[in-house]
Automatic annotation (TrEMBL):
One Pfam assignment: CMAS
Family, as annotated: Belongs to the CFA/CMAS family.
Compositional bias of kind Basic residues: 132-141
UniProt protein name: Cyclopropane-fatty-acyl-phospholipid synthase family protein
Region Disordered: start-end pairs: 117-141
Gene3D superfamilies: Vaccinia Virus protein VP39
Organism: Streptomyces similanensis
Keyword Iron: no
Keywords per UniProt: Lipid metabolism, Methyltransferase, S-adenosyl-L-methionine, Transferase
Amino acid sequence: MPDAASRLTTLLEQLLETPLPVRVRAWDGSEAGPPGAPTLVVRNRRALRRLLFKPGELGLARAWVAGDLTVEGDLYTALALMSGLIWERGEDARSLGDILRDPAARAAVRGLVKLAGPPLPPAPPPEEVRRPGHLHTRRSDRRAISHHYDVGNDFYGLVLGPSMVYSCAYWPAPGPDATLEQAQYDKLELISRKLALKPGQRLLDVGCGWGSMAMHAAREHGVSVVGVTLSQEQAAYANKRVADEGLTDKVEIRVQDYRDVTDGPYDAISSIGMAEHVGAARYLDYASDLHALLKHGGRLLNHQIGRRPQRAEAEYHVDAFIDAYVFPDGELAPVGTTVTQLERAGFEVRDVESIREHYALTLRRWVANLEADWDRAVRLTSPGRARVWRLYMAASALAFERNRIGVNQVLAVKTPGSGASGMPLRARTWGAPDA
């Protein structure tokens, strides 16, 4: 009888109608596949059962998070080689139903079922979130934010580094002398310049995280800042940082839903990596709420991940792995949808800048931080949670590099009826003091 790796490889290639681009090592120690390629290690038959009961990305994610499946060799190379089978099969790829109408494919599935052993569906890993749909109520949003951000400040510090900024950095150029901390400082400064922050102004930082943007704006530009977050852990950490830097007279951090902020008007609003959590059903309300909180002539900087549009599909998209393990209720839309919704809310969109490549560089630095202190990361969270983050960040880095997703800074103005936007004639002179 063929060894498990050879049998598994043959059946998968028969089902997928293409050679596997990676090597396979099975639970019996046998190996098959191209020599020198990264190795997909199938540690037990349970991994197969997870894939059979949840074909596709979610089944793979469950096997990875549970430790039933792992990769030996460079993770980025392995993901890049497998991306054509998982994420990039294209709009014309056959559906599972179409595949199973093929007698050869049905035979391959029967062979996989036999190889997988007793047909009992394994329970999902405890790190998986299960909830009744994308509600985006205040309560469901609090739970979603808590799942992602209340993992532990020490864990985030390990991954993000001293800047504690959990969004795309702004890199001068890739190279050994470019530090993550400087790139994050440059991103916060870029946003401050786009918002034209000046002493005496009021800034609302929506989804303020651990307070980095709020502190930067107060320290470097002399503005008064209100930062709001739904995470208790983030707020506690941010308030301590604010106190340690002597900025309590300039920065207020609240545990508050942005929908409950009523003390406008503000001169400027920053929303950095927060709008992905809003959801399709609530996005126009989100944009309208921020519009109402700005004074006439005030600016909004909306820094948001977007995805590439596809033919004949919904405007918003939910990724199965990310929805279950990373960002519950997160929904990505093309940048054109975001701009349209902001304009529908009354904003005048004045500038859109894509910084897609910058996020790939940022994520690779975060992955390097995680891998360099892996044992501590596991102690701070759990083995499954650490595996979630490693896969999520590495796969996301490749998605940005391959232009499957992007990140955009949209600068919008609450332009008054007079039409005076207050914008400079040469808008991209963000570095100039009078911009």
